[in-house]
């Protein structure tokens, strides 16, 4: 065994393989397991427990039992647990980065970036917890006093996707714990190891038993529905595809359950004729190829003014053709594998459809033969209206360019989607930038920036991209409920 393989094996051996329920790591009640696979090799990394419906109920029981004492724990003490978790996670950044690269495939440098980003939610919400505030004041008639207080909503169910295994977990767990809520978290079955390792870290940081419970399962639907329909559950926070989000909203409706939904995107990336082209090309590389294109914030449609479209396409093609593809653990690799064979098929189909409708394939365009699920970094230009690639989330390393002639046309194309998560705009005109802030139907915007994610900012979408916000001063309110009391004037 090489030194690298030994290090990977030792790391994987330390990750718990059970469900965390009420402070105990246990096997699934039905004895079922699931195998976690390295998408770069197709090899199995680890076998872990796969929860049954009964395990789901037990996890919710544990979160309900732990709620009264966690709710009563002073905010400062809750904050200290989060802050310790931030410190330990930061110390172990390399370990968590490697674990994510192994189970998800992203290049190590990006995985380190995700650890820093993910850890920041722990620090941010450790700082927010002591600032949960209310207000006291006279009613307008002067005859009474109004007292407004904030309370944790109660036990929460958190469901996370596979593409950012750490950050999607901390972005939900940190505000929930800061608010005084207890949780059951269900990571994606494709990348559950990071959440298991993070839950063990929270125990080390002093989190009491039952405050965070972890369910890993390949029966996501069957295990989740009874939890969502249980009247003891007070909040569902989901990050994933819009199709699943809509189904969960239907389940949540029966109990008028509070929900936060971080769903899909179809981000426009608009390059005006007055853009700094160097900045636009750098921004495009970050907005498109970060996480191998598998981000809800990934730029999906490059809408470029006709006068600079050829130059932009030439420059990005040069950069894209030079991207190094390989296993994310290897030095210098910039593009890892896609998560599975289905993702590769989807990218292939979208490129083929665009080319069949007249787009020009400038580089890439094909699945890469051999072990793992790799797809060539790709650029297609002159994409025709009506092509599937403009409608669907690509979720792969494919950059699609559409030309435009007028600002109104750029706005119309950018807004022509059911989604509204993030938009990117490149222009050196302040007035035009301001107009775009007002005209684009989007929850977030990068103005001359290719990445917007930040723990201090309210992350979330408009339209079919979701409900609610994660991060920022807004993030903790997703886990708090308001009570107003009227009392006579003294
Ligand atoms: P997905 O919807 O298939 O799965 C998300 C999670 O839901 C996983 O944990 C999965 O196991 C679970 N799930 C699937 N079916 C379920 C069911 N019937 N009941 C309960 N849980 C179920 O999405 P994915 O493929 O893991 O992630 C990619 C999607 O997530 C993309 O659409 C992407 O845009 C979106 N995403 C959004 C954000 C955001 O913040 N807006 C961030 C990351 C990813």
TrEMBL record:
One of its GO terms (molecular function) is succinate-semialdehyde dehydrogenase (NAD+) activity. Pfam families: Aldedh. It comes from the Bacteria. Residues 25-484 form the Aldehyde dehydrogenase domain. It is an enzyme of class 1 (oxidoreductase). Coiled coil: none annotated. The active site is at residue 262. GO terms for biological process: gamma-aminobutyric acid catabolic process. CDD domains: ALDH_F5_SSADH_GabD (cd07103). Keywords: Oxidoreductase. InterPro entries: Ald_DH/histidinol_DH, Ald_DH_C, Ald_DH_CS_GLU, Ald_DH_N, Aldehyde_DH_dom, Aldehyde_DH_Superfamily. Its EC number is 1.2.1.-. Belongs to the aldehyde dehydrogenase family. This is NAD-dependent succinate-semialdehyde dehydrogenase. It comes from Demequina lignilytica.
């Amino acid at each position: 065994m090489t030194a690298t393989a030994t290090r990977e094996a030792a790391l994987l051996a330390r990750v718990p393989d059970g469900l965390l329920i009420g402070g105990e790591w246990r096997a699934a009640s039905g004895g079922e397991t699931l195998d976690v696979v390295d998408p770069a090799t197709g090899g199995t990394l680890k076998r872990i427990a796969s929860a049954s419906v009964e395990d789901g109920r037990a996890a919710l029981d544990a979160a309900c039992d732990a709620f009264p004492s966690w709710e009563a724990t002073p905010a400062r003490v809750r904050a200290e647990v989060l802050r310790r978790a931030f410190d330990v996670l930061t110390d172990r950044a390399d370990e968590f980065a490697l674990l994510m690269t192994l189970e998800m495939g992203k290049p190590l440098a990006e995985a380190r970036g995700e650890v820093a980003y993910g850890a920041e939610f722990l620090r941010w919400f450790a700082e927010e917890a002591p600032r949960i505030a209310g207000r006291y004041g006279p009613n307008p008639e002067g005859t009474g006093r109004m007292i407004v207080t904030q309370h944790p909503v109660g036990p929460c169910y958190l469901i996370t996707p596979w593409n950012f295994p750490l950050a999607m977990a901390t972005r939900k767990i940190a505000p929930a714990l800061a608010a005084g809520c207890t949780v059951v978290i269900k990571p994606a079955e494709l990348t559950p190891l990071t959440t298991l390792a993070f839950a063990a870290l929270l125990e080390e940081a002093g989190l009491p038993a039952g405050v965070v419970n972890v369910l890993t399962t390949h029966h996501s639907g069957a295990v989740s529905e009874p939890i969502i329909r249980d009247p003891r559950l007070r909040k569902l926070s989901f990050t994933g595809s819009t199709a699943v989000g809509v189904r969960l909203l239907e389940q949540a409706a029966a109990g008028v359950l509070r929900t936060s939904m971080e769903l899909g995107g179809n981000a426009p990336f608009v390059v005006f004729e007055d853009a700094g082209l160097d900045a636009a090309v750098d921004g495009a590389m970050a907005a498109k190829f970060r996480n191998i294109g598998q981000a809800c914030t990934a730029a999906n449609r490059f809408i470029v003014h006709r006068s600079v479209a050829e130059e932009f396409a030439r420059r990005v093609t040069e950069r894209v053709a030079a991207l190094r593809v390989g296993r994310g653990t290897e030095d210098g690799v910039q593009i890892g594998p896609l998560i599975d064979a289905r993702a590769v098929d989807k990218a292939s189909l979208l490129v083929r459809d665009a080319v069949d409708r007249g787009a020009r394939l400038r580089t890439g365009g094909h699945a890469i033969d051999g072990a793992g699920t790799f797809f060539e970094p790709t650029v297609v230009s002159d994409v025709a209206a009506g092509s599937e690639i403009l409608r669907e989330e690509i979720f792969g390393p494919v950059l699609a360019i559409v030309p435009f002639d007028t600002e109104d046309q750029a706005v119309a194309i950018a807004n022509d989607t059911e989604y509204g998560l993030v938009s990117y705009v490149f222009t050196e005109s302040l007035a035009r930038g301001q107009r775009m802030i007002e005209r684009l139907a989007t929850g977030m915007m990068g103005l001359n920036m290719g990445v917007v994610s930040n723990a201090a900012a309210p992350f979330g979408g408009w339209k079919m991209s979701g409900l609610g916000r994660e991060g920022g001063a807004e993030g903790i309110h997703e886990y708090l409920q308001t009570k107003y009391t009227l009392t006579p004037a003294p």
